[in-house]
Amino acid sequence: MAHLGNNLPRHSILGNSALAAVLSRRATLRQLGLAGLSLAAAPAFAEDLIKLPLPSDPRERPLTHDFPQKGTMILQRTRPPLLETPFEVFDRGVFTPNDQFYVRWHWAVIPTSVEVNTFRLAVRGHVNQTLSLSIDDLRSLPQVELAAVNQCSGNSRGYYEPRVAGAQWSHGAMGNALWTGVRLKDVLDRAGVKAGAVQVRFDGLDEPVVPDAPDFKKSLDVDHARDGEVMIAYAMNGEQLPLLNGFPLRLIVPGWYSTYWVKMLSDIEVLDKKDDNFWMAVAYTIPDTPHASITPGQTGEKLVPINKMVPRSFFTNVASGATLPAGSAPLRGIAFGGDSGVAKVELSIDDGKSWQPTALGKDHGKYSFRQWEANVLLGAKSSHSFMVRCTNQAGDVQPDAPNWNPSGFMRNVIETLQVTAS
Amino acid sequence: MHKQIIAVACLTAGLLYATPAWVQDKIEIKSTKVDLPAGDSLFPGEGADAINNNCLACHSADMVLTQPALPKATWEAEVHKMITTYKAPVDEQDVAAIVEYLVKTKGKN
């Protein structure tokens, strides 16, 4: 603890109040530590608990209403916030409401206020002209809209066996929104990318608590950044972004994991070489193997930055352990194809021995959630393993066996529910 | 809802088009100020002084308390990752006590 007081942070963009809060918290912690207190860690703001169907304890999480611009969320971590979407939200529609869209931050220094008139997005580096763009400047560019799933690389990590360290998410570290903003390409064209550009690096307003820790930055290859689909969003689902989802600007990288969707985007740097920063070269890397899967304990595999998402599907109107009335049972859920659209969603009620087609709902584009539904006939007093699997338009299908890697990334095994008919 | 319809029309063509000016709603973007919960609850139980003194500046205790049981070697690796990779200002003399607390509360053979 003695070191903490020496590490005055470099909160250049923070208001005095936020800085004071961090320092004050440190002082409080120091005093408490010196006093040798060991108080119970009951979250004072927890109003209710939810039990997640994880393979081992602890399964209970507080349901919280204490985060700004957020309704009921599953509290995975208070600071920096990790807030999971309660799964029943996905049964209510194909778009995830902003106030229940999941939240994930790496560092605890998050600006708690953003002034729209003074906010600027920098575009710099290997460009002809450095830019400093206001929100209005951005909004003078052509407006585009896209429905796209945003999913944490570690969504469903809590189901990994053997268990791995990290946020113990159930399946709710994902959401689907209609994103409104501008093409990244249009912004880069305005700056004029010089020949020889290799990658484009993105940074947000969040900062590490400890000054020499690695600031969170992510990069895309220059051709990807200029593909006309990658966006800078200033709205989701028709409204400005909640602060915890990246207000005022967020990078949208359709079909790729959320680690690239930099929140509170404030700096775009065109690089003339490959980005070797920690968050690209070390963190968020996966084994370069099918399904990013290795045997627990296996080492020495080549590692590559995580990238495209893979197909997934879920039941949304029935949970494992449910008892349904015998007879005709209406089942429904959501699916997404990853980096291509949903081609088909199939259903099994006999542990994968036979599969039947489902009817797909309205197509909101290849990067969106797509709803599916089907009716099945359940015999009296029967037991079933319900499964649902998505095949995307590239022909990729969810695997029968779970993948494993030490980071708990890219789970997309066919999920199975145990259901009984009365 | 007309926005969604437009998005579908655009995507069917596999491209992302500009919304025509005549259907654009001007989405209002306003300055925002929020308060975030402090998340300063302490680790409970015996032997928690070291983890309380060293770990709570960067993250709240619930991150650790929601972890599954993990082997001692995993906890040692986690603590050292915090120090070497994430530059957590942990007193070297407290490392053993932090690992001991983690193994006691979240340990697995």
Task: Characterize the structure shown.
- The complex is a heterodimer of chains A (422) and B (109).
- With 422 residues, chain A is mainly β.
- Chain A contains five helices and 26 strands.
- The radius of gyration of chain A is 23 Å and the shape is globular.
- In chain B, helix 4 (72-84) crosses helix 5 (95-106).
- The chains are: A mainly beta (422), B mainly alpha (109).
- Chains A and B meet through helix 1, strand 3, strand 6, strand 9 and strand 10 of A and helix 1, strand 1, helix 2 and helix 3 of B.
- Strand 6 of chain A pairs antiparallel with strand 1 of chain B.
- The assembly state of the depicted protein chains is heterodimer
The shape of chain A is globular
Number of helices of chain A: 5
- Sheet with most strands of chain B: 2 strands, parallel
How much of the residues of chain A is beta strand, in percent?
25-35%
Helical residues, percent of chain B: 40-55%
Distance between the termini of chain B: 55 Å
Q: Would you tell me the overall average pLDDT of chain B? A: 85
Structural class by sheet pairing and helices of chain B: mainly alpha
Number of strands of chain A: 26
Would you tell me the structural class of the helices and strands of chain A?
mainly beta
Strand content of chain B: 5-15%
Computed CA radius of gyration of chain A, to the nearest angstrom? 23 Å
List the helices and strands and how they pair.
The complex is a heterodimer of chains A (422) and B (109).
Chain A: H1 16-35, E1 48-51, E2 60-64, E3 73-77, E4 82-84, E5 103-104, E6 113-114, E7 121-125, E8 131-133, H2 135-139, E9 144-151, E10 174-183, H3 184-191, E11 199-204, E12 217-221, H4 222-225, E13 231-236, E14 250-252, E15 265-271, H5 278-281, E16 285-287, E17 303-305, E18 312-315, E19 323-324, E20 327-336, E21 342-348, E22 356-357, E23 359-360, E24 370-378, E25 383-392, E26 415-421
Parallel strand pairs in A: 7-15, 19-26
Antiparallel strand pairs in A: 1-2, 2-3, 3-4, 4-5, 7-8, 9-10, 10-13, 11-12, 11-15, 13-14, 16-17, 18-20, 20-24, 21-22, 21-25, 23-24, 25-26
Chain B: H1 2-12, E1 32-33, H2 49-55, H3 62-65, E2 70-71, H4 72-84, H5 95-106, E3 107-108
Parallel strand pairs in B: 2-3
Helix pairs in contact in B: 4-5
